[in-house]
Amino acid sequence: WRVHAPDVIAYPRISGTPAVTMTPEGPQWNILDPAAPSEAFIESFARALAALQSITPETASRAGVPTSTIAEVRAALSRSMDATREALQPSEAVWQRWQRWLADDAMWPQHVALVHGDLHPGHMLLGTDGRLVGILDWTEARVTDPSIDLALFCGCFGRPALAQLVERFAQAGGTTWPRLVDHAAERWAAFPALIAEWALRTDNPTVLEHARGQLAAITAETAA
Fold first, then answer.
1. Residue 126 pairs with which residues in a beta bridge?
2. How far apart are CA 76 and CA 49, in angstroms?
3. Other CB atoms within 10 A of residue 130 CB
């Protein structure tokens, strides 16, 4: 950032259009159709993700990037679920879904990787052809569960697009494992707990309501 003050931050303008911008009427998608993301977008996203994860955890750690083991990640998620259970009131079906995912060793990777950590469409810059040309806001970057950026992709674009992404990611040299698609989808299903934890920690009722709204969608999906 070239400008950083309590009320504003700014950095030099770079090329590309955010995939989504917020307007008073709600989110406005630009170039990209979230219901049918293009092959060009998926391929370019996969290549970017593979390039990011090719940076070794050791290199990232030496640069000061926070690092967690998979065991630490699982323990932290369990604490988040416990801490937010009263505020969120997840259904028993959702709660058991979360616990099964946490406990299923076959779901989880045996390695960690460098992730962006907050790779939602507002942080994606697209070219006019729909390809990913830039990524903004690296404040949540860390070495951790490599599925985090994939989980957000699943939440934004759906499981079929996620499966396409994982295929392209592997072709681009990314490291996968047999249950990656399932794991990323289950991580997305657990996101309400993480959002709610942040909302409670910062005393932000608006974000807490957002977490509850996301949980309602997960509840409906779980019951289907």
1. 17, 132
2. 24
3. 18
List the one residue out of 189, 194, 219 whose CA is nearest residue 207.
194
124: enclosing H helix or E strand = strand 124-126
Tell me how far apart the alpha carbons of residues 107 and 52 are, in angstroms, rounded to a whole number: 22
Q: What is the pTM of this model?
A: 0.92
Mean pLDDT of 197-222: 97
Per-residue model confidence as pLDDT tens digits over 77-106: 999 999 999 999 999 999 999 999 999 999
| Distance in angstroms (rounded) separating the CA atoms of residues 88 and 195 | 10
| Cβ neighbours of residue 112 closer than 8 Å, sequence gap 6 or more | 57, 67, 68, 69, 70, 143, 144, 145, 146
Question: Which amino acid appears at position 189 of this protein?
Answer: A
Which residues lie below 8 Å from residue 101, measured CB to CB, with a gap of 6+?
107, 183, 186, 187, 189, 190
| Six-digit token string for 22 | 């917020």
Residue-range domains of the chain with CATH: 29-68+112-184 (3.90.1200.10), 77-105+190-224 (no CATH)
pLDDT digits (tens, 9 = 90+) for 145-175: 999 999 999 999 999 999 999 999 999 999 9
Q: Which long-range contacts (CB under 8 A, 24 or more apart) does 206-210 make?
A: 208/87
SS3 (DSSP) at 111: coil
Q: Which residues are catalytic?
A: 118
For residues 117-126, give the mean pLDDT: 97
